[in-house]
Target: Protogenin
Amino acid sequence: MPAASRESARVWCFSELFFVKEPQDVTVSRKDPVVLDCQARGEAPITITWLKNGGKVSENERIYTLSNGSLYISEVEGKKGELSDEGFYQCLALNKYGAILSQKSHLTLATISAFEVQPLSTEVQEGGVARFACKITANPPATVTWEVNRTTLPLVMDRITALPTGVLQIYGVEQKDAGNYRCVATTIANRRKSTEAVLSVIPASDLKPFHKPSIIAGPQNITASLHQTVILECVATGNPKPIISWSRLDHKSIDVFNTRVLGNGNLMISDVKVQHAGVYVCRATIPGTRNFTVAMATLTVLAPPSFVEWPESLTRPRAGTARFACQAEGNPAPKISWLKNGRRIHSNGRIKMYNSKLVINQIIPEDDAIYQCMAENSQGSILSRARLTVVMSEDRPSAPYNVHAETMSSSAILLAWERPLYNSDKVIAYSVHYMKAEGLNNEEYQVVIGNDTTHYIIDDLEPASNYTFYIVAYMPLGASQMSDHVTQHTLEDVPLRAPEISLTSRSPTDILISWLPIPAKYRRGQVVLYRLSFRLSTETKVQVLELPGTSDEYLLEGLRPDSVYLVRITAATRIGWGEASLWTSHRTPKATSVKAPKSPELRLEPMNCTTITVQWQQDSEDTAAIQGYKLYYKEEGQQENGPILLDASDLEYTVSGLDPRRKYHVRLLAYNSMEEGYQADQTVSTPGCVSVRDRMVPPPPPPHHLYAKANTSSSIYLHWGKPAFTSAQVINYTIRCNPVGLQNASLVLYLQTSETHMLVQGLEPKTMYEFAVRLHVDQLSSPWSPVVYHTTLPEAPSGPPVGVKVTLIEDNTALVSWKPPDGPETVVTRYTILYASRKSWIAGEWQVLHREGAMTMALLENLVAGNVYLVKIAASNEVGEGPFSNAVEFAVLPKETSESNQRPKRLDSGDSITYSDYYHLDQKSMTGIVVGVCIALTCILICILILIYRSKARKTSAPKPVQQSTDQLSHTSISLASANEVEKSIEGIAENEESLLPMIVGSSFIDAKGGSDLIINSYGPVTKGNCKKRWLFFQDTKKVKAEEPQRRFAQAVCLYQPGTTVLLSEDESPSSPGQQSNFQVPFSIAADTEHSANSEGSHETGDSGRFSHESNDEIHRSSVISATPPTTSPFASSDLGVNVMSPDKSNCTESPLLFATDQTPTSPLQIHSAVQN
Model:
């Protein structure tokens, strides 16, 4: 055996069984021999058997099988009955794996009929157009030639065109063209000649008047098979000679590669394809004028079946389920049937066929076979094969039991079950099977889920429908028996689509509105009401009618004649109203049109995704004469096409070249020589298309540069690049998403989009996901892109911090502590502490502190004795902020009654949390406190020495500035009439003198509403000293560092005399000579020290307080309020503050300074005024 042969045999044995050659359609003459090819390959031995019309061929000396498997017929018989060899032939190949059947081969005998159309004699004026036609039916199609005076007509002249359809056209007729014409039809077996027709030529007159264009032979509707040649004839006359042009009614371009013009205007389309189908328009136009006429014809292309989806070979365990899918397209729509080992399969309880699918339940060993899907129509048949291999296993689990279902919604049912009692530990997956309970041959659906659950929600069901469910448990080499079946009903829902409506008029003042029932798929329950809305197109007022759900028409009466009305309809179930249809227009007839043709009864039916059949019937009682019909159609929202002129005898028309999944509005009316009749309007929707997939075309490349970014705790934003293509194409994408390490494949999420980006939502927080993208273009799919991994953000804290505790550790300082929010997955990066006295809380003013997520305690300093404070805390992270805790109240006792070690007093309230024990400080905390106190005392001592030194230097120049300051203060907004008035003002606020101190903390401001440390009260912006170093361990280090540069320029001043109020000023930043300051601070005093002006950027809290997360160092200068207009002052500063020194203080630590504004630069420190008590 040669090496090549051995190699070939080794290659073939890998495939079980397939055809190398299959029989083809053939036409032969009687008594001629014929060979029908059939060659199969696979594991030997292979037996070939021939079938004719489904039965086995009886072989004899005239018909027998050759050694290569082909069928040979020595003499084809054409007699009628059983002796005729005509019919459909198939070969059946069989080996140990099973059997396969070939496609059908149609054997026909060559025939030719008599002439159906003979050429007719005609008289033509010289220079005119002569046309002869003949028609004959033959198999194979006959070749038609022409003779003049019994001799072959020469076709070399441009004036003469002979069409393959049997038409002869002679342009510019001359006297020599006169004669006897006949056509000759020739096939492989016969030859026929028509009768002769005489062409008479009349001499032309010298006067050639203008003549409008007229089409004397227009195109005819043609139905052609794939790859044939089609000719659309168009012959026109006129003076001057008209120009012929072609176009498509759907405005699509005509295929220039497969079309050309024959003669003077005939359109020939060679190698016809499905996309050539449509309405073609011939237009004859007089050059240089607007005089034209048109004629139209529809080209319908018939196509043999072609597979869109092929069945794939499967390996299944015994008692499992096998599902084969097969889809094909063609024109007419192909019929799908299934074969097992070459024999047709019929549905039974275990094997079902529906919607071109084959499902085999509870597989048995006998199901191990070769299965074929056969698609056939009038144009041919094709088959595709797949193998089912059954794996045997005896140790199977028992069936799941206690199966029960619960309705969740109109489209979802929850299914639950118990694990098998026997071998449940070997179960690796469950298979959920469900199908509609009503009707026959309903499609059964299957969902495979993991073994880690015993419940599943089926959420793709139709509303208001009964479904049957059962469960099968799977192990690696087997499956259990089916569980018991359960039936459950889904709830109703609102209609998914409005009815298709039809509008006609019986008189000039009425419109009959009729509609078809909504298909059950879109009805989603029982329709109980219809709502009709109508209005004049020129008015906005809409009239509404509600009709019972059993009605299917309604007559609107009392309308205006010759007016356009807009009508739409809505349907409702017991759940509610669905979406309304778009407005459909209809013009009522004119009042004078009483004798016009009535509206035809119109019916629309989609043939396929791009073709609509329009059928109509004229009222038999209508006595008006009808000359023809006018047909118009348009896609909703697009320009109307038409009119298409139809003969009075036409009762059907096919509209082709439409777009799938679109709604079209069709209107039809009859007309006569007097006027147009009443029109009929109707809408129809085209279905979706199933496109052909070509295995030979390589797949497109996958998307590139896939990028993922977490958007929230439940969403991730994806972006990818579109591959480069040679031309612009419509591209769709599929995104695959699943958590990393997913064990249950049924939980993989697939999403579709036409964009190059998508926000994937509904994800779990703080979970890593993997993503991949593939594209679909021209019915081809790319491979998946490289996988990208990304983690969702953590979820914002869902609860507040817990265990909030407040302890008063000094007269004006409290320590607040807390624990992180409950939940192990909660991530906290920052805490927000809000606290305020009751008085400030009523005014909506909160002071804000922020601490990092690692800290769970904070100091509340400068509290006012005698006040009750409220504290609440919230946790936040990069995603957002959680809720605030319940407010905790604590009291700061007055100094007269408070002792250093006294137990803090706490007040109970509905939202408060109280504690009865002290806050215990550890050794480290006490060490830090002692060190902090020492540092503070050192700072105080240094400040006192500096102030004493500087006060001596000022004594020589003090009287003049004091007098000057007194004069300036008379022009400011502070009214200091006398020392007594000042003393009264101070006494008025003596009770709350401590309330000012918590507000003046640090060198930056506290804004109770803005969230910063800025206090905006009646004194204007107030700064606070930072020389206090107590409790440094609990201070915010970032804040301390930010404040250090400011303290370099702020010179501390303390001029204290008992019973004296001192106003101080200081420049924190130098001003250049002559520089004008735009910021002026007029002085004013108010009794309420907790009042603050509104600041921008405030946020509402749950108890009407306001806080902001703005920077603590930001100073809202615009918040300073003046009671009187500002005046010029010799004291200027960049950052200004106001304060009144209390006479009760016996020491000073970086005392807060009172600044005034001016437009001229001053020395770093000046004394404004001194008011004696």
Remarks:
- Confidence is low (pLDDT under 50) at residues 1-14, 691-696, 897-920, 957-1173.
- The first strand starts at residue 17 and ends at 21.
- The longest helix spans residues 923-954.
- The CA atoms of residues 717 and 759 lie 4 Å apart.
